[in-house]
Amino acid sequence: MTQISIAVPDSFLAGSQSLLEKSIKISQLARASAIFRVDNIFIYRDFSIRTDTRDVNITRIILEYLDTPPYLRKSLFPQTWILKHAGMLPPIKAPHHKSKISSRDLKIGDVRVGITLKLNGIIYANVGLDSPIALPESNMLNKKIIVKVIALCPKITGIEIQKEKLEGYWGYRVSYSSSLKALLRSYNLDEIIITSIQGRSISEKEFSGSMQRKICRIKDLLVVFGSPNSGLKKIMKCEDLEVSHFPFVINMFPNQGTETVRVEEAILGTLSILNKEINVF
Question: Maximum Cα–Cα distance for the chain, whole Å?
């Protein structure tokens, strides 16, 4: 199964005036990412426009907040003006957002998201039970981890496990890249989809068929989006990158009925097209 990542510019919130408007836009990004099982959301520096430096922090914090199970949010996110409207945002309800349960209902092999803490010199994890569970092999504090239950007696014990070893969807990671060039260089050229109105139409049968065959063999796919003010061609030119160097430059919305497609709309639409037509998931 292909791991899919998306890249959005730090100018993603350009044009959004209020914190409420920004929060709603970010929640649309979070929902689309969870629906289509995005593993990584990269926020890259857009040198084509002067952006509000606070917007990167707003985007990152709200994305991470929405990806966190509700029972951990108070522990991981102190009160901040950035989360003023978080309570009204639609939850992503991904599989790792499990309900709080009693320890009596826990089974060996259960997997839950938790945060590490120290009690009486021993590392435990709060995983949404009525009491924390022991993590004898851990030495990290205040770390968000995935915990697998390995014992129930004489006390509940767990181990940290990487999400790559788990079946199903366990949320997305949020990362910042100081430049788009640096991010793109971490992938092979044929692992990148550049979305652009100037690209080849996704509806071209010959192109679509060839692309499908190639993408289905990719283990790690990156889909890159432009900003509300600048297409990727302009953004990439600011870093001396040529769009023509990339094999997959695709217009995902040929014959669009609107002058522009908003970034949050482009993300939802593009992931939907990939999910249905290319079957990368």
Answer: 65
The Cβ of residue 2 has, within 10 Å, a number of other Cβ atoms equal to: 18
CATH code, domain with 187: 3.40.1280.10
**The sheet that has 40-44: what strands, in order across it?**
173-177, 40-44, 3-9, 220-224, 192-201, 249-251
Tokens of 87: 């309570």
Cβ-based burial of 121 (10 A; exposed 0-12, middle 13-18, buried ≥19): exposed
Within a domain: 98: no
Domain that holds residue 108: 103-165
Q: Which residue, chain included where needed, has tokens 């010199």?
A: 121
Specify whether the CB–CB gap between 28 and 104 falls below 8 A.
Answer: no
User: How confident is the model over 236-252, as pLDDT tens digits?
Assistant: 999 999 998 998 999 99
Is 0.85 topped by the overall pTM?
yes
The mean pLDDT of the chain is: 90
